[in-house]
UniProtKB/TrEMBL annotation:
UniProt signal peptide: none
Coiled coil feature spans: none
UniProt-recorded name of the protein: Antibiotic biosynthesis monooxygenase
Organism: Streptomyces exfoliatus
Domain ABM: 13-99
UniProt KW keywords: Monooxygenase, Oxidoreductase
Taxonomy of the source species: Bacteria, Bacillati, Actinomycetota, Actinomycetes, Kitasatosporales
rRNA-binding as UniProt keyword: no
């Protein structure tokens, strides 16, 4: 299966870029990650996400939202807040979050 990128979103929209350092497969992470994916998909205005991880433990997830209200709904979700707190305590060595407004975007896909 070829990975599918998020594309063809009409600007403006917003991104939340989450960059982290953590061990490869900490206990409970996979289950929590799956649950967070379920929750965010139900937020009106959520457009999709892409994620990648290096063998050295650096991960990057970019989530796309139609507007700041939908991004704030994700940030303020109680299960998401609990997962973030647990992650700081048990999984992550460090992380950063960058919020941006996309004013222009384009894509390419080989036929």
């Amino acid at each position: 299966m070829t990975p599918k990128l998020v594309a063809d979103i009409q600007p403006p929209y917003y991104t939340a870029v989450f960059t982290s350092v953590r061990p490869e497969a900490p206990e409970g992470y996979s289950e929590t990650s799956s649950r967070m994916q379920e929750i965010v998909r139900d937020i009106p205005g959520f457009l999709g996400y892409e994620t990648a991880r290096t063998p050295g433990g650096i991960g990057i997830t970019v989530a796309y939202f139609r507007d700041l209200e939908s991004l704030d709904a994700w940030r303020l979700d109680t299960e998401h807040q609990a997962a973030k707190a647990y992650g700081r305590e048990h999984w992550y060595e460090s992380y950063s979050v960058h919020i941006g407004k996309v004013e222009r975007s384009y894509s390419f896909e080989r036929e």
